[in-house]
Amino acid sequence: MNLNRHQRRAMDATNRARFDHDELRPIPPEAWPNPAPRGLVQVWASRDFLAQVYTEDGATRISICRTRLDGDNKWKDGITWEDLQRIKCGIGLGDFAAYEVYPADDDVVNVANMRHLWIPVVPINLGWRKAHA
Questions:
Q1: CA 48, CA 35: separation in Å to the nearest integer?
Q2: 3-state class of 85 per DSSP?
Q3: Disulfide: which of 37, 43, 113, 125 matches 75 by Cβ 3.0-4.6 Å?
Q4: What's the sign of the alpha-carbon dihedral 99, 52, 77, 74?
Q5: If you average pLDDT over each of 32-36, 77-81, 89-93, 120-124, which comes out highest?
C-alpha cells in the first residue's frame, strides 16, 4: 500500500468516523475483499485494530494489525501484550490459550507490522497457570 499523507489522513478520519470507540466489531463477509483470502472465517475491527481470524489445518490463527499507517506507508507498530490479550478476548477467544511463534531464521516472513496468535487444535500444556484456591 503506497498512500500519500493526504490519503493516510483520509483513512484515519474514516476509521475514527466508523468506530467511535475501541470496541471490536465484526465486519460482515460482504465487506471483505473479494475473493477473500483462503481460510478467512472472521474479520473484526475497531478504531485502532484489525483482527482477521483464519482456520488452517484445524488450528486458528488471529492476524492483528493497527488500522493506521506510519509515515513509511507501513502499518503502525507497537502492539502490546495487553492489546493482543484484549483483542483475543474481544473476539470471543478468551477461553483459549494462544501462542505467538518465532520461526527459524530461514522461515521468517516480515513484510508488515502485524502480529499473529495461534490457537492449536489440541491445547499445548505450556504456559503460565494461576494458582486457584
A1: 25
A2: helix
A3: 113
A4: positive
A5: 89-93
Coil, strand or helix at 8: helix
Q: Considering its fold, how many domains does the chain have in total?
A: 1
Conformational region of residue 78, where left means phi above 0, alpha means psi within -120 to 50, and beta covers everything else: left
DSSP codes joined into one string, 27-87: PPGGGS-SSPPTTEEEEEE-SSEEEEEEEETTEEEEEEEESSB-TTSSB-----HHHHHHH
> Can you give the residue range of the structural domain that contains 78?
5-119
Amino acid residing at 112: A
pLDDT in tens, 44-88: 998 888 999 999 988 999 999 988 655 555 556 779 999 999 999
- Cell 506510519 found at: 70
Counting Cβ atoms within 10 Å, is residue 66 exposed (0-12), middle (13-18) or buried (19+)? Answer: buried
* Domain assignment of residue 42, yes or no: yes
Say if 89 falls within a structural domain.
yes
Grid coordinates given for 38: 483462503
Longest Cα–Cα distance in the chain: 56
